[in-house]
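tool=predict chain=A
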Amino acid sequence: MIVVGAFLAASTAHADEFVRGDCRGVVAPSAALKYDTPEHARWYKRFWTGDCDHLPLCLPGAPNWNEVVGKLLAKGGPKEQPALLPKACRLGQLIGLEWSRDKKIKHITSGDLRVFNSMLDASGDALRGVDLVDAKARVLTNTR
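tool=predict ok
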């Protein structure tokens, strides 16, 4: 009975995860992250999924990080995917957690997201593009 309860709890937590399946296990589960407010958590979900969930002044849809990772993987091709996937997923968590914070305290803005997207699009090499965006995001968030 305990095993069934543990399985159901794990299944429920997994079912509530909105980060794309191939990023799970690479990044921390969304439910385990520390959010400043409930709205911070909802904006983080928006970053990954494009779902506004009644957020004020939110535009639903693309771009969202689940789609960005897919485009990066397609651009990188099969040879780069083993190195590219974990980097792209971790980058999404880094950028998304900061961008989704209250505008008075966040260090990554929607303007930065547009710059990051342009950098990824302009890069002829998806892995190099992710590395460049990662370096810029770390400078903005003061993380190393």
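The mean pLDDT is 90. The two ends are 45 Å apart (CA to CA).
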